[in-house]
Structures are given as C-alpha cells and as structure tokens.
Specification:
Elements: H1 3-15, E1 37-39, E2 55-64, E3 67-76, E4 80-88, E5 100-101, E6 113-120, E7 125-131, E8 135-140, E9 153-154, H2 161-166, E10 173-179, E11 183-189, E12 194-201, E13 213-217, E14 226-233, E15 236-244, E16 250-257, E17 265-270, E18 273-274, E19 281-283, E20 294-298, E21 315-320, E22 335-341
Parallel strand pairs: 1-19
Antiparallel strand pairs: 1-22, 2-3, 3-4, 4-5, 6-7, 7-8, 8-9, 10-11, 11-12, 12-13, 14-15, 15-16, 16-17, 17-18, 20-21, 21-22
Length: about 350
C-alpha cells in the first residue's frame, strides 16, 4: 500500500476515537516481540519567518473534534527553546499551516521545551506539560485556543534530592504524566541513566506529588537517556525510552508491564532488537533522510490522561535530521515525520 494511503487508513481509525466523550478502544491484541516500520519524508519544519529557528522537535499530539493538535519545541541556535502549536485536519497540509508560538500566551518567554498534551477528564481541562528547568505545566479549557494557556505552574517546588544525588552532569527533563484509576504518575529522566517516577492521587492532581523513586536505571547513561513515553494498552503498559547508540544515533528501547509501577520486562530494548531504530525502519522511495529516530510520541486512540493506544496500528511522530548535520545541539536541523508499523500481529 502506498505510504500516504496507508496513513489515511490508520488515521481513519484514530478519528473514530478522538472525541473526549468516546470510550477508549481496547482491542484484544498484543504487541509483537520485534518491530518494523515505514517512514515518510519530513512533514513539518520551522517556518521561514523572523524567528529564524533551527529546528522543530519533541512533538506531542492528539486528534480531537476533527483536527490534529500538535505541540512541539522550537529551537534557536542562540535564543534557546520555547513551544509552538499547530493544528490541521490532514497530514498533507501539516507543513503549510500557521505556527502559533506559545511565548505569546501566558506561558511566556524563556526556556520551555519537550511538551506533552492531554485532557484531564476529571477536571475537564487540557494540560500541557513541559520542562523549564523544573516540571512545568499550563492548563487550557480549549486545546484549539493558543492564547488560552495559563501561566506556568510546577508539579515539584524544586529538584528533588534523589535527582540531585544521581544527576551528575546530566539534566532533569522530559516530563511525562499518565494516570490510572487511582494515581497520576510523573516520569522524568536525568540524561545520566536514571528514569524517575513520582505520583499523586487522581483527586489531588496536579498537586501532592511525592518525592520520586528510581523506576529504572542503567550503568550506561546512553542506554537510558531521555524522552520517556508510557502508554496503556489492553490493561497493560508500554514504556519507551530514547537511547544513544554505539554509532551516536538516537533510537528507542521498549518494555512492558502489568502496572505503571513496574517491574518492567524488556520487549525490544537492544540496538539489534529495538522498538525503533534506523536499522528497522524502511524509508519511502528508499530515501533515508535521517539516521535518528528521536524524541516523539505514539498516536493515541483517545485524548485523556490514561494515554491509551491501539496496539494494532502503531504510528509514531518523531524527530529526525539529515545524517550529515553537525554543529551545536541547539542548531541541529531537526524535522518532524511519521513512522508506521508494518508488522502488526492483529
């Protein structure tokens, strides 16, 4: 099936479950023990405008009320990071729509990056989670209103001591919220081999988070680096974490568990047996435009805080860049694209 036609068939399934009031689908199926993917070309890049951005990266996305709502980091070689919002009804138009820069909202200017978007159903409120040196968030009653975001608040008052004790030369970043029936859990990374988790009762969210615990760690910091995602499927949980390979390229490892708290069992977690890496991704037309499968998000089957996915049709929005790109990290030309799973067991 041609790449664009395959995308449309998969996204038709997502559209059927994109309403807040709809029950999330839980098909009786399972994830495979290995993965293969097909990537299209870059779909979203910085606008040619006065911002002179080097990159768009770290996408988070939901489908709601007939449209895609995508949030991402903007990167400038000298001005650093902030956030951008795009909305579109078809991926064919994703590269040409208006970019709404969220430093124009109450989120404000300064360092904000790595967003996560979800609808917190108990409060009927949208949450945008991001890093600003701490675990930041903003709320909005209308995901489609880029000017409706509140001023920044934080889940933790300051960096917890356990992170100070382990972070070394890393950074506390890439915050990720997922809730079950009892608790909301906040995951984060330190670029130094630790994945952390703190939690609070659903009824107390967004307040009341306890001190984090180490959810997972690796003596090799590059194998458990950053960009954690956690999703629910068929009553189980899928954990993804970005690693930096022996070839210095970005890729994703995966684990599964019956509980958000773990323990986590490796699913596809090695360079030659990965969740997503350049060596298990084919590229449309044979044009391998990137060797990095980096920070992104799976397309969800709903929009709420349970972060449910349909394991039958996995699509991952990711960031990649030209293989020959060099320079300071903030100046690297990251672009957004999609990979679709080609070996579903459903």
């Amino acid at each position: 099936m041609p790449y664009q036609h395959r995308l449309r068939s998969i996204f038709d399934l997502v559209r059927k479950s994109g309403d807040i009031q709809a029950e999330s689908t839980t098909p009786t199926s399972r994830l495979p023990s290995h993965f293969t993917w097909l990537s299209g070309p870059p779909l979203i890049a910085p606008k040619n405008d006065s911002r002179n951005l080097a990159a768009l990266k770290d996408p988070s996305i939901v489908f709601y009320e007939g449209a895609w709502h995508l949030f991402a980091s903007t990167a400038h070689a000298t001005n650093g990071y902030n956030l951008v919002y795009l909305t579109f009804t078809s991926w064919d138009e994703a590269g040409s729509v208006e970019h709404h820069y969220l430093d124009q909202s109450a989120i404000g200017t300064g360092y904000r990056a790595a967003p996560q978007i979800f609808y917190f159903a108990p409060q009927k409120l949208w949450y945008l989670v991001f890093q600003d040196g701490n675990a930041g968030y903003s709320t909005n009653p209308d995901v489609a209103d880029p000017n409706g975001w509140s001023a920044v608040k934080h889940f933790h008052v300051d960096m917890p001591q356990i992170i100070r004790d382990h972070i070394g030369n890393g950074y506390w970043l890439d915050f990720w919220v997922i809730c079950d029936e009892v608790h909301c859990h906040l995951f984060s990374s330190d670029d130094n081999g630790q994945l952390y988790r703190s939690w609070t009762p659903v009824g107390s969210f967004p307040e009341g988070f306890n001190d984090p615990v180490i959810a997972m760690q690796d003596a090799d910091r590059w194998r458990l680096f950053e960009a954690c995602n956690v999703y629910r499927y068929d009553g189980r949980y899928l954990l993804l974490v970005e690693a930096i390979g022996t070839d210095e390229r970005r890729w994703f490892r995966s684990w599964t568990s019956d509980r958000i708290e773990g323990p986590w069992e490796a699913l596809a977690a090695e360079e030659d047996h990965s969740f997503a890496r350049a060596n298990n991704v084919e590229f449309e037309g044979g044009v391998r435009w990137t060797e990095d499968i980096s920070h992104g998000e799976l397309i969800r089957s709903g929009v709420d805080e349970k972060l449910e996915i349909n394991p039958c049709d996995l699509v991952y929005v990711y960031q990649g860049m030209r293989p020959d790109a060099t320079g300071e990290y903030n100046s690297l030309p990251w672009r957004l694209a999609l990979i679709t799973q080609t070996n579903s067991e459903c």
